[in-house]
Design a protein that fits this description.
alpha/beta, Helix Hairpins, Pyruvate Kinase, Chain: A, domain 1, 5 strands, 60% helix, 13% strand
């Protein structure tokens, strides 16, 4: 039977951990709410920009706009979005596993990684993957400029022909209880499945090519901003669920420890009573 003092200390320790996990759950719930609000604000602009590009893009040659031009795929850029911190269940490990599978298909030497978040940066850097750029320690003060700087890094690499295609792997926010782990192509831009075949008889100023050339980089920035928000919302939602599960597990452990404590105390009391009775009988004899 375990020592009463040790059991009492274990109960206090688990209770303290339970209070921490409960607090972390509340903090995550507040953060995910703010991230959701920003995410919803960005969606209409992104949707309308894409709609305008879809109207114009079919009317110009893809060779006129570098970010649309399709190439023979030799080198691929992979944007991997994770978090800086843990305690979020399988949030980071899921992204890393998918990235490894995709890299294995292409070939390690043919992939340049743009790691967003310390978890992906540290993981792939330690394993000698070709990490071209790393971005972290920005989530607390994340803004649109952050997304623009990240976009600029892989757009420049694409325009310099260092990479022929860019994909992003991240967690898309679905509900507080679930997130979708997905991979999307970022470059070259391809809205072919979204083209509206309606013949729009519009006059464009200064010109179709100029409009698309201006809108596409902005659209990529907005998409990156939205993907960061989706990932951040998913991270905090995953952390909230993980901390809730940890709190419930701590509750069960405390219950079991208290039961064991009570059994040990009863056994100790019984032993003491037997010793007293035995001592009393010895005195009578």
């Amino acid at each position: 039977m375990a020592n009463l003092k040790n059991l009492s200390e274990r109960i206090k320790s688990v209770t303290s951990i339970q209070q921490v996990t409960k607090a972390m759950k509340m903090v995550a719930a507040a953060k995910v709410k703010k991230a959701q609000e920003k995410m919803e604000i960005s969606r209409p602009y992104s949707r309308n920009t894409q709609e305008l590009i879809c109207r114009v893009l079919p009317q110009i040659s893809s060779s006129d706009v570098s970010l649309v031009e399709k190439r023979d795929i030799k080198n691929v850029g992979m944007i991997i979005i994770t978090s800086d911190r843990g305690f979020a269940g399988s949030f980071n490990s899921g992204v890393i596993r998918m990235a490894e599978k995709e890299i294995e298909k292409i070939g390690k030497d043919n992939v340049q990684l743009f790691c967003i978040g310390k978890k992906s940066s540290e993981y792939f850097s330690k394993r000698d993957f070709n990490v071209k750029e790393s971005f972290f320690d920005f989530w607390k003060d994340m803004n649109y400029e952050t997304a623009s700087n990240i976009s600029k890094s892989f757009i420049d690499a694409f325009e310099k022909n260092e990479i022929d295609e860019v994909n992003v792997i991240y967690n898309r926010f679905k509900t507080l209880a679930s997130q979708d782990l997905i991979m999307e192509k970022v470059l070259p831009v391809d809205f072919s499945k979204d083209y509206n075949v309606t013949n729009y008889n519009y006059d464009y100023e200064p010109g179709k090519k100029e409009i698309v050339s201006t809108l596409i980089p902005k659209h990529i920035n907005v998409q990156m901003w939205q993907q960061l928000l989706e990932s951040y919302s998913s991270e905090e939602a995953a952390r909230m669920i993980a901390m809730d599960n940890a709190t419930e597990n701590a509750k069960e452990i405390i219950k079991e420890l208290k039961l064991e404590f009570n059994k040990a105390r009863q056994a100790a009391i019984t032993t003491e009573m037997l010793e007293i009775v035995g001592g009393a009988e010895a005195l009578v004899d």
